[in-house]
Amino acid sequence: MAHAEKPPVQINLLVCGGGNGAHVLTGLASSRPGVKVNVLSLFADEAERWRNKLADQYFVVQFKEKDGTSDIITSRPNMITNDPQKAVPGCNLIIFTVPAFAHEGYFKAIAPYIEPNTVIVGLPSQPGFQFQCCDLLGIAGKTCAIVSFESLPWACRIETFGRMVQVLGPKDTLACSIINRGCRSLFPILPTIQYVVGKEPKLTEAANYLSINLLADAVVHPPMMYGTWKDWDGQPMAEKPLFYQGLSEFCAEMLDKVSNELVATAKAIHQKYPDMDMSDVIHLFDWYKLNYKDSIADMSSLRMAMKTCSAYNGLCHPMKETPDGKFVPDFHYRYMTEDIPFGMVVFRGIAELAGVATPAMDETLYWGQKILGKEFLVDGKLEGKDMGMTRAPQRFHFHSLFDLVNLR
Ligand code: NAI
């Protein structure tokens, strides 16, 4: 595997997390010359379990390349701990690779130990990462660059916890935004992350952080959950329904409408602030045409494109099994618990500040918040009692488009 050029200084990388993505990142980064990796997991006894499981063995990444060949990458991280006081000092690059609901705990844990001019990365960031980062990182955090990636670089899963992880395939390209905030980093930011991640996917920089927020993966799941389960009678089902291949006309219409609302939001931002290049924000159908053109059999409509995308073959709705072997929807899966408070509520908040009406997002949110037992949207305003658990800009005192475009 060829790599980008080695950075000019030693990289002391902190990986925050302990799941699939954190396993891959830890294994790849530890194998790069000039990169020292500390892993911080705050989840239960995960760090201890990982440390004990690895013991004095090598950690293994099985990396399936696009051409079907596989690489075996072995390495050892420098440290795996749940103690931020040990893990954070001296780190010049910090990468969060953990679901968004866990970010707040990591920001709070690292804040007292973070050094000026550190580069903080969300891989993926999920919407609102930047607002939370500015809010929680304190004085030293003010000179930290914030890098937000639209997704994870790989489809991956842990094979043996703490010992071996599989990369099922890297993406072709992956976009990020960089808010520099006067960070005087001693290494070039994007080439260094590319060096750590490896040659694929090709990392690119989007025009600004608002584009990355409006582009997030999270756009797809809540409208599809809503469209599929809004009229569910509560009866267990004999089989798990297919998530993409079973896409209904109604779900596709909802996705189209939500996507139009996001594009309208991007246009409104550009209209009021012409310097903000929002052209990265495109309709979901156009996104499929760009990113999955070789995998889609029928490109005649958004619905058919999603139904016939071979990358999604066999993917089912998140379901829980009942004692008698039937299935009910799992509304605690991240399509709801992550993609509503850290996805759709953030989109809705940005749209509100841009003055764009969002009837389709609102319809989805009213249903989703009821299912989650939360209250975000009340009478068309993001003023519900549970807004404090979301990452909408309003929660972090961004009250106008001016505030949003001036986050630098
Ligand atoms: P994961 O599902 O493996 O994350 C589990 C980890 O989250 C745990 O190991 C633990 O470290 C942490 N965690 C779980 N519950 C917690 C709690 N209550 N408190 C604190 N920490 C807790 O996540 P994965 O697969 O690594 O994904 C990371 C992000 O990348 C997610 O946002 C996911 O949506 C996204 N993503 C993942 C892909 C994949 O192939 N795995 C593909 C595309 C995106």
Summarize the helices and strands and which ones pair or pack.
Blueprint: E1 11-16, H1 20-30, E2 35-40, H2 46-54, E3 59-64, E4 70-75, E5 79-81, H3 84-87, E6 93-96, H4 103-110, E7 119-122, H5 129-136, H6 138-141, E8 145-149, E9 154-160, E10 164-170, E11 173-179, H7 189-197, E12 202-205, H8 209-215, H9 221-229, H10 249-272, H11 284-291, H12 302-307, E13 319-321, E14 327-329, H13 334-337, H14 340-354, H15 359-372, H16 401-405
Parallel strand pairs: 1-2, 1-6, 2-5, 3-10, 6-7, 7-8, 11-12
Antiparallel strand pairs: 3-4, 8-11, 9-10, 13-14
Bound molecules: 1,4-dihydronicotinamide adenine dinucleotide (NAI).
Relevant terms:
four-stranded mixed beta sheet; globular; alpha/beta; 408 residues; binds 1,4-dihydronicotinamide adenine dinucleotide
What this model shows, in words?
- The protein has 16 helices and 14 strands.
- The chain has 408 residues and is an alpha/beta fold.
- Strands 5-2-1-6-7-8-11-12 form an eight-stranded mixed beta sheet, with helices on both faces. The protein has a four-stranded mixed beta sheet with strand order 4-3-10-9, covered by helices on one side. Strands 13-14 form a two-stranded antiparallel ribbon.
- Helix 4 links the parallel strand 6 and strand 7 (119-122).
- Helix 4 runs parallel beside helix 5 (129-136) and helix 9 crosses helix 15 (359-372).
- It is globular.
- 1,4-dihydronicotinamide adenine dinucleotide is lined by residues 17-22, 41-43, 46, 97-100, 102, 105, 124, 126, 151-152, 155-156, 334.
- 1,4-dihydronicotinamide adenine dinucleotide binds at residues 17-22, 41-43, 46, 97-100, 102, 105, 124, 126, 151-152, 155-156, 334.
